[in-house]
Amino acid sequence: MTASPRPAEQRYPAALKRPVPSGTGRPSSAPTIDRAGGVRTQPPARVPAESVDLSVDLGRGLVLPNPILVASGTFGYGVEYGDVVDVDRLGGICCKGTTLKARIGNPTPRVTETPGGMLNSIGLQNPGVDAVVEKYAETWTTWKTPVIVNVAGESVHDYVEVTRRLDGVPGVAAIELNISCPNVGAGGLQFAIDAGAAAEVTAAVRRATDLPLLVKLSPNVADIRPIARAIADAGADALTAINTLSGIAVGPDRQRPLLGNIYGGLSGPAVKPVALRVVYEAAQVVRIPVIAIGGVTELADVLDFLAVGAVAVQVGTAIFADPTIPIRLVDELAGECGRRGLTSYRELIGGALPKKAERPSAKGVEYRP
After folding, report:
1. Which of 180, 241, 326, 330 would be a feasible disulfide site paired with 217, CB 3.0-4.6 Å?
2. Which of 175, 185, 118 is nearest to 152 (CA)?
3. Per-residue pLDDT tens for 261-297?
4. Are 275 and 251 a contacting pair, CB within 8 Å?
5. Average pLDDT over all residues of the chain
């Protein structure tokens, strides 16, 4: 166990949540006098892309080399893409959801394309935490990129026990809690849609480990703000947002739902506006980092999520079409910062956030127009 971390406001300065004042990260533009006697400002000098600081401090000693991660469920355990992608160039790898015991997953069919995305109903198929550690952890120790293990369960005990078995394992850099799972102790209620349940499981896992703790938010709620605050107050080091939206597809004969489990999780570009809204609202009410997920396919998406307060993004569904997208985004972000004369990407964070918290997007269960 390590010493208690510094308070969030010390280890995660507000500068990462709001635009950085001129002169911090951006070279000053030198005023000049034009021929008519007017004052004009020269554009900042370009900065070499390799000189741009892309590092991300998530607290408790977890520093990502850059803000482009791969999302859980889309990159396996990392080894599956080793021959296609230089994993050491990624900001972080969130591995497949890992449970206490092995799971065979949901009945087929499990995946279908949708306009602007896909529905998946894999059902957390995985070999169980002990097998994951035995098979993959040694390989993870050889990578520079931090591996964040996504943990799922049906009870507080499940989450705590999986975390305990990961605590202290070389190669495991952090935990990401997938709390969009049915809480068997609460009649099947998802932890992620109830502030009290979300806080309970977060606090229990926090007591079980000193590993950096990320908690993944569900978009399937009316108001994300009290849930985000409850998780932050319970000891999370960062939030990730969002998990998939619940949906269904209809079979070709129109006689039954298509997926074997009926319901699936919607992901891809179609969910980006929802993800932007959740990140925007969460970033206004917590002082811990927010990592965005949802429809990232190009640099413009990365810049949008940074503008609404995210400090990093996870690339998910797009990887199925092109596994090299995350590496390309790392290079493009560095190039964009260099073009703007920025020595750090942090000045791009929070530019679209209001100076004080705005009203929520929903009242009760009804969204505002």
Report:
1. 241
2. 175
3. 999 999 999 999 999 999 999 999 999 999 999 999 9
4. no
5. 89
Q: Is 264 helix (H, G, I), strand (E, B) or coil?
A: strand
Q: 109 preceded by cis ω (within 30°)?
A: yes
Q: Is 216 in a helix, a strand, or coil?
A: strand
Q: Which residues of the chain have pLDDT under 50?
A: 1-24, 26-30, 32-33, 366-369
Q: Which of 291, 300, 285, 284 is nearest to 242 (CA)?
A: 291
**Residues classed as catalytic:** 181
Cα(343)–Cα(357) distance, integer angstroms: 29
- Tens-digit pLDDT profile for residues 170-210: 999 999 999 998 777 777 779 999 999 999 999 999 999 99
Q: How far is CA 146 from CA 58, 61, 67, 334, in A?
A: 12, 11, 12, 20
Nearest to 73 by CA among 90, 103, 91, 93: 93
| pTM score, whole prediction | 0.87
- Between the alpha carbon of residue 9 and those of residues 14, 174, 338, the distances in Å are 7, 20, 28
How big is the CA angle at 171 (ends 318 and 139), to the nearest 5 degrees?
75
Cα–Cα dist 311/274, whole Å: 17
Residue with tokens 């989450």, as numbered in its chain:
159
Number of residues that make up the chain: 369
Contact indicator for 301, 313 with CB cutoff of 8 Å: yes
